[in-house]
Design a protein that fits this description.
By secondary structure, the protein is α+β, with helices and mostly antiparallel strands. It has two domains: 76 residues, Glutaredoxin; 108 residues, Up-down Bundle (Glutathione S-transferase Yfyf (Class Pi), Chain A, domain 2). The chain is built from eight helices and four strands, in the order E-H-E-H-E-E-H-H-H-H-H-H. The chain has a four-stranded mixed sheet. Helix 1 links the parallel strand 1 and strand 2. Helix 4 packs parallel to helix 6 and helix 5 crosses helix 7. The longest helix is centred in the middle third of the chain and has 28 residues. The radius of gyration is 17 Å and the shape is globular. It binds glutathione. Glutathione (GSH) binds next to helix 3 and helix 4.
Length: 201
């Protein structure tokens, strides 16, 4: 399987962590990509019209995106233990994943706004609105953290990658302040070999 990859993308990281947890890392060939909201990476766009990473090309040529689809695909290939098939826990896992992905969408958009958009076109209200979503998502994750305990699934992997991204790009936000349960959980989860090996440099 070929994975269009960017080492700093938290969405790619979710796929790599899933592969690691499922013992599939050796089956994944990482292909360097240069995703950008304005300047298209033509090799990447030839497989994914959205020009985004992660994009996976499976061994049979099937092209998969986005990160949620790829994580589900890897999970099924690797035995399925990262997403319970039924019961309330399935929906808990999927909502946790959606919450973490939503936090990441907002954080990545703020980064584009403040690094890609020309300075005279930036709109601080828009940045503030997105950062309010990040803060609200973190507050919800703090409420949920007591239930994360020993869980290793598509939800907690997404949450771990979202928090890792905030440490990488938004350290001054100080997300751990006022969120002690989440911070304690991440200290343990972030030390898993799959997380440690994929941390952005
Ligand atoms: N919903 C997508 C989001 C992926 C995404 O935003 N990837 C970023 C890199 S972190 C990207 O490729 N950006 C290029 C662009 O916005 O065109 C997913 O879960 O895979």
């Amino acid at each position: 399987m070929k994975l269009f990859h960017s080492a700093t993308s938290p969405f790619v990281r979710q796929c790599v962590v899933c592969a690691h947890e499922l013992g599939l890392l050796g089956h994944l060939e990482l292909v360097a990509a240069a995703p950008h909201p304005v300047t298209r990476d033509l090799a990447l766009a030839a497989s994914n019209p959205l020009g985004k990473v992660p994009t996976l090309i499976a061994d049979d040529g099937l092209v998969l995106y986005d990160s949620r689809v790829i994580c589900e695909y890897l999970n099924l290939r690797g035995g399925g233990r990262l997403l319970p098939m039924q019961g309330p826990i399935r929906w808990r896992v999927l909502v946790d994943q959606a919450l973490a992905d939503g936090l990441l969408d907002a954080a990545v958009l703020v980064r584009y706004e403040n690094t890609v958009r020309p300075e005279n076109l930036r709109w601080s209200d828009w940045t503030d609105g997105q950062l309010a979503k990040v803060a609200a998502a973190l507050d919800e994750l703090e409420r949920l953290a007591a239930g994360f305990t020993e869980r290793v699934d598509l939800g907690t992997i997404a949450v771990g990658c979202a928090l890792g991204y905030l440490d990488f790009r938004y350290a001054p936000l100080g997300w751990r302040e006022r969120r002690p349960r989440l911070a304690r959980w991440f200290a343990a989860f972030g030390a898993r070999p799959s997380m440690a090996a994929s941390a952005p440099a």
